[in-house]
Design a protein that fits this description.
The structure is a single chain. The chain is an alpha/beta fold. It has 13 helices and 16 strands. The strands form five sheets. The chain has a six-stranded parallel β-sheet, sandwiched between helices. Strands 2-1-5 form a three-stranded antiparallel β-sheet, with no helix packed on it. Strands 6-7-8 form a three-stranded antiparallel β-sheet, with no helix packed on it. 36% of the residues are buried.
């Protein structure tokens, strides 16, 4: 037993002294920081922070914790055992500084910019769809696996036809999720419908999983009168209040601080749900990313951050964005348990997101997931990625590392899928997408007045003035506007 003398100065200058008997407290409390190798099998989650057990699974979450000494910040703590032996310095002092207790040292050592060994990436299936370990537990049921696979094929097919529609001049803009289908559908399968999703713009698969119809996708992209937003948003900026999917906005990272605020509101209301925020590696270069992570960590908000590290922020590759080991280490720097997962492995993504969700809710704290993948497509229809990267590399990732092929191989070996079912799925999906596009084109366009409605109950004078100016401009320059524009 160690004897601790604590002197605490509080308001009014009163001095309170008390003797506390306790076991010796180590300077740096032991806590688990396991990193799973690609060949290790997942085990039941034995919580690395509090020693609790939950029904989810533990993989390579980089451990973080609140140090008890931080709660004593602003107090004076004098210990009889503050002195520790140091072979080079005799004795060093442990001093309470703003933020907690820290030991002094005479060794001048700078923390390295990054570790020589990169954080390992959790996976379940190899490139050919084989489990990487015979002891590896497989958690996805037949029904769930087939639904995830069907969703991935549907998303891929939708992207192909919508992309071609844009090239034909039928759409103004489009952006695909080629190569990232597993992150979309597997993460969606691991969430509850009560979880609030704030996406970027490569997560339509989450909406697809939750019941957003092909016709609703087409209506939004064509901006017709029955589409979400009535043409007031660019194509692919989906949203659905009914499906807890916040409408996408174009500026990068704005959704991240918003996600933390929403998560904190769920915490205050004691809801059995969390917020899930998706973003790309390029977003981590924005200030809002860092503000959001610190906000979430300090407030213990139940939010799951999912970064799709697809290697490119438009034409800027990750090696030109930051020197750190990707994104996963940034979470640990802010005190957030973090993990790196193979984003092209649907089973691995599902396992990790399910575990992260349960941890976020049960422990009321944030989690960061870095899903490693590759953007097989151009950034958008406004981009030609062959100008800054090799076609051979794109084809390599599109074939060898295809998340769709990998999951298909696995379900086929399980005896759950066949060539006949594959053919039927693709034929049905193509007909469904073509029909949705044709129907969306037939719908009338929104009235000009709809540009100014649905925000205020009573239209304010400044918006009335803007509407008048728009109408006057159309009358002065009729050739610059579509003849069939509904005014």
């Amino acid at each position: 037993m160690a004897l601790w003398l604590t002197s605490t100065r509080r308001g009014g200058g009163n001095l309170m002294k008390k003797i506390i008997s306790s076991y010796p407290l180590p300077l740096f409390p032991n806590y688990q920081t396991t990193i799973a190798s690609s060949s290790s099998s997942p085990t039941l989650l034995s919580d690395s922070i509090n020693g609790k057990r939950t029904s989810s699974f533990q993989y390579s979450f980089l451990g973080t914790r609140h140090y008890k000494s931080m709660h004593a910040a602003g107090e004076q703590i004098l210990s009889q055992e503050d002195d520790n032996d140091d072979s080079t310095f005799g004795k060093t002092k442990n001093m309470d500084l703003p933020g907690g207790k820290i030991a002094y040292t005479i060794d001048m050592k700078f923390l390295p910019g990054s570790s020589e060994e990169r954080v390992k990436c959790y996976r379940v299936l190899d490139e050919d769809g084989y489990p990487i370990s015979s002891d590896m537990l497989e958690y996805m049921s037949k029904e769930l696996a087939l639904r995830v696979y069907s969703g991935m094929v549907t998303l891929n097919t939708m992207d192909k036809f919508f992309y071609e529609a844009q090239r034909q001049g039928r759409l103004s803009f489009y952006l695909t999720s080629f190569g990232e289908e597993a992150i979309n559908l597997a993460s969606a399968a691991a969430l509850s419908f009560d979880d609030i999703v704030l996406a970027q713009y490569r997560e339509p698969g989450v909406l697809l999983w939750r019941g957003f119809t092909m016709q609703e996708f087409a209506n939004q992209c064509f901006g017709n009168n029955i589409g979400h937003g009535k043409g007031r948003q660019m194509p692919i900026h989906y949203g659905s209040k009914k499906l807890n999917y916040i409408t996408i906005s174009s500026p990068l990272a704005t959704q991240l601080p918003q996600a933390v605020g929403m998560a904190y509101s769920l915490k205050m209301d004691k809801k059995d749900a969390c917020v899930v925020a998706f973003f790309g590696d390029g977003t981590t270069s924005e200030g809002d990313f860092h503000a959001a992570l610190n906000f979430a960590a300090v407030m213990d908000a139940p939010v799951v951050f999912i970064c799709r590290n697809n290697g490119w922020a438009i034409s800027t590759q990750v090696t030109e964005q930051f020197r750190s080991d990707g994104v996963v280490v940034k979470g640990q720097a802010y005190g957030i348990p973090s993990i790196r997962v193979d984003g092209n492995d649907a089973l691995a993504v599902y396992n990790v997101v399910r575990s992260a969700r349960e941890t976020a809710i049960n422990e009321q704290r944030p989690i960061l997931i870095e899903a490693m993948t590759y953007r097989v497509s151009h950034h958008s229809t406004s981009d030609d990625s062959t100008k800054y990267r090799s076609k051979d590399v794109i084809e390599y990732w599109n074939t060898v590392h295809s998340p769709i092929t990998r999951l298909r191989n696995w379900v086929e070996r399980k005896g759950w899928w066949s060539d006949k079912e594959e053919s039927e799925l693709r034929i049905h999906t193509m007909k469904q997408v073509k029909h949705a596009i044709d129907e969306a084109e037939k719908e009338e366009m929104p009235l000009l007045r709809d540009m100014f409605t649905d925000v205020y109950d009573d239209l304010p004078s400044n918006l009335m003035e803007q509407e008048t100016l728009v109408r006057e401009t159309i009358q002065r320059h009729p050739k610059d506007f579509p003849k069939d524009m509904p005014l």
